[in-house]
Amino acid sequence: MTSSTTCCRRAGVRRGSPVAREDRRVRLDAPVDPRRSLVRRPSYDPDIFGQLSERVARFIGTGRFLVYMTVVVVVWVLWNIPGGPDRARFDEYPFIFLTLVLSLQASYAAPLILLAQNRQEARDRVNLDQDRDADASARADMQFLAREVAGLRMTLGEVATRDYLRSELRSLLGDLQERREPGEWEGPATGEERPPDVGT
After folding, report:
1. Which of 10, 14, 108, 180 is most solvent-facing, going by the fewest CB within 10 Å?
2. Model confidence over 60-99: pLDDT tens digits?
3. Segments making up each domain of the chain, as ranges
4. What pLDDT is recorded for position 24?
5. What is the pTM of this model?
6. CA separation for the pair 92, 70 (Å, rounded)
7. Could you tell me which residues come within 8 angstroms of residue 82 by beta carbon, excluding any fewer than 6 positions away?
8. What is the b/e burial string over 155-190, where b = at least 16 CB atoms within 10 angstroms of the residue's CB?
9. Quick check: 13 and 20 in contact, CB under 8 A?
10. What is d(CA 152, CA 157) in angstroms, rounded to the nearest whole number?
């Protein structure tokens, strides 16, 4: 067992995985894998490649690209048409080379456009998830506020207001004044003490 395998096992990383390779590149204290390939595989950033594909796809979808392609094809055909003035023709009448160039352009354009569409679809999916989360949060907030407002309405319906209490107290006072017999105590007058309760 080599030291790099031991290091990878201790770190919990499978040997040969991208994490292990990247970790060894970044860290200077990790042992280097003794197996080296003769041809180094090219590494590229998929995000930069995706941005480039989006730019190309945007340009291909413009009228400017169509005008450029039309001008190139017309000049190509007029330059190589038989019966014109004597000049060096690089593609004779069946225009095989022009067909090859257009086929190559189409074969590269289609995957670039698909890659740009995939990136746009991924962005749309993320935006949709964020919108869905925001809608769910807003819906939960609205339901909470609706419950709070309903609770406040019920509480206010049960709580006696000041005007209601005043009117009830006035009606009770009026009932008591009607029921009282003449000569009964009417309340604390000046210098007059309240009579003792009958039960004491």
Report:
1. 10
2. 989 999 999 999 999 998 888 877 667 788 888 889 999 9
3. 1-43, 46-143
4. 46
5. 0.49
6. 19
7. 89, 92, 93
8. eeeeeeeeeeeeeeeeeeeeeeeeeeeeeeeeeeee
9. yes
10. 8
CB 4 within 8 A of CB 32: yes
Q: How far is CA 159 from the centre of its chain?
A: 45
Q: Show Cβ contacts of residue 160 under 8 Å, excluding neighbours closer than 6 positions.
A: 168
What does the longest C-alpha to C-alpha distance in the chain come to? 142
Residue 7: both structure tokens together: 């290091």
Q: What is the pLDDT of residue 150?
A: 93
Range 160-168 contact pairs with CB under 8 angstroms and sequence separation of 24 or more: none
Lowest mean pLDDT among 31-40, 50-59, 182-191: 182-191
Say which residue the tokens 């030291």 belong to. Answer: 3
Tokens of 19: 């994490």
pLDDT at 14 (0 to 100): 55
Select from 21, 27, 13, 26 the least CA-distant residue to 41.
21
Please tell me the predicted confidence (pLDDT) of residue 42: 76
